[in-house]
Amino acid sequence: MPASLVVTTDHIAPRERAPVWREWIWKHFGGLESDLYGDTEFDGHMASVNAGDVILTKLEANRHRVVRTQDMVRASDAGYLKIVAPLHGRAGVEQLGRQAWVSPGAWTIYDTTGSYEVHNPERVEHLIVMLPKAQIMERGLRLDNLMARYVGGASGISRVALATMRSTYQELPHMSADAARGAGELIAQLVRLSLIELSGQQTALTQREVLKDRIRGYIALNLRDPALSVEHIAHALNCSKRHLHNAFAGDDDTLASHILRLRLEACIRELQQTGPQARPITDIALSWGFNNLSHFSRVFREHTGCSPSEFRLAAGAHNADRQLTH
What we know:
It is a single chain. The chain is α+β, with helices and mostly antiparallel strands. The protein has two domains: 4-199, Sandwich (Jelly Rolls), CATH 2.60.120; 207-325, Orthogonal Bundle (Arc Repressor Mutant, subunit A). It has helices spanning 14-28, 70-74, 133-136, 156-171, 177-199, 207-222, 230-237, 241-247, 255-271, 281-287, 293-304, 308-325, and strands at residues 4-8, 33-35, 44-51, 54-61, 64-68, 80-88, 91-95, 98-102, 107-111, 116-120, 124-132, 149-152. It starts with a strand and ends with a helix.
């Protein structure tokens, strides 16, 4: 069975979780600084397993950002290419002047031998895959042009690569060391083929998809701002409101309903946290950009079928039942 690592903040005092988490992140990912966007409350979980030289980590945590500076790069021993493939939530990767935002069903890749930032502006669950850079090097393939690019995962070889990374992580505990090493080599091969395919395309996305990706990234970073609106986004991205609406044409969500849905989902996650540490409903609503409590209550009921207080009572009963069964 491959070597594994599991860490969780569940049994750590709340005031000590943030510094302990930063230390874990620094050690596990070979020199990486983490901050919590100024939040004082935090919980996180990591489970990591090796497939030969390939490291697969499932990370679940509150919103946070990680940064690697050039000084941190020089202090690191090994060079990896790192993939982030969200299972829940979104991630934004910045490197070499590019930024790629990915959500479940897609992935992006970046180089740990250069400086970078990864933004997780909401609670996330990611599969993070680290591959030795030497395994991916391909003659004539310029990796610099492919870092912090939206690779995809909806079709083609990138979809096969994503499915293989996910299934390998799930099955590694049941594999022999030799089988795990073979699975890691297969992942490296599929990632290499995905990058070769990506390098042959003029662009990873159509202009509409690029704009949509920029919009979603901006929304994710500014979701808590009550002033966030179509007009606000258009001004920030220097484009017309018509272009913003066109980017979402054909989707189930309009741009405004996309923002509203993300805010409601964030409030729902917080309302599921019960007990002495739970925040008042009004504080939760205001912290996620709702500036009118009656409007929040109305749209919450339309979305869930019950009021925020009824939802919290049901969540408390559910949490109590889970504790009894454990």
